[in-house]
Amino acid sequence: MVREQSASMEDYLEAIAILRGEGRAVRVSQISQNLKVRMPSVTSALRKLTEEGLVEHERYGYVELTPEGDGIAADVIRRHRALSRFFTQALDINQETAEEDACKIEHVISPLGLERIIKFIEFIEACPLGEPNFPKRYKYYLEHGELPEECLARSLEREQGK
After folding, report:
1. Dihedral, CA atoms, 32, 38, 39, 44, nearest 10 degrees?
2. 53 and 66 Cβ atoms separated by less than 8 Å
3. What is the pLDDT along the chain (162 residues), one digit of tens a residue?
4. Taking a C-beta distance cutoff of 8 angstroms, is the pair 137, 151 a contact?
5. In the prediction, which pLDDT does 83 show?
6. N or C end of the chain, less CB within 10 A?
7. d(CA 157, CA 145)
8. Residue 13 near residue 65 (C-beta atoms within 8 A)
9. pLDDT value at position 39?
10. Rounded to an integer, what distance in angstroms lies between the CA atom of residue 58 and that of residue 52?
11. Distance between CA 43 and CA 38 in Å, rounded?
């Protein structure tokens, strides 16, 4: 899917999808609260998204995503979740910071960059370094600037095997 939406418009689509996913009929006031923007800003954005065929919204009515808008929102949510997982699981960043960073980066990351992050997360979850000791080892490395003993031993074994 080609992304032609601005980061702001993607945020609106993402917010609508998330609010709808919580089982609520989506209103302008809820979008305003979710994105921490004023209601006239939401109305203006919805007008643009309606013109582009991404949402359906009648004045004072509910907001609904069109199939195309839903597809874009799903892609933004997918990027956000992958980035957030990468920041928390691979980089040991706290959840709040991970969410903030993911929200900023989800709009500019290339498809290749995103896929590599997803593959890295899959790798560390599936391979021995992805076992419970991996986050502990990585945190040690971040805190001390040197590899833990277990990793050094493995590195030496690999070098001697060459």
Report:
1. -110
2. yes
3. 444 678 899 999 999 999 998 777 899 999 999 999 999 999 999 999 999 999 999 888 899 999 999 999 999 999 999 999 999 988 889 999 999 999 999 989 999 998 888 877 766 664 455 556 777 777 777 788 777 777 776 656 656 765
4. yes
5. 93
6. C
7. 21
8. yes
9. 93
10. 15
11. 9
Question: What sign results for the dihedral spanned by CA atoms 155, 157, 159, 162?
Answer: negative
The whole-angstrom separation of Cα 120 and Cα 76 is: 19
- Indicate the Cα dihedral angle 74, 79, 62, 39, nearest 10°: -160
Cβ atoms of residues 34 and 15 within 8 Å: yes
In the block, which residue shows the tokens 């839903």? 70
- Catalogue the long-range contacts made by 59-67 (C-beta closer than 8 Å, 24 or more residues apart): 62/25, 62/26, 62/27, 63/16, 63/26, 63/27, 63/28, 63/31, 64/16, 64/20, 64/26, 65/13, 65/16, 65/17, 65/20
Three-state DSSP state, 155: helix
Tokens of 13: 């689509």
Contact 13, 54 (CB under 8 A): yes
pLDDT at 146: 76
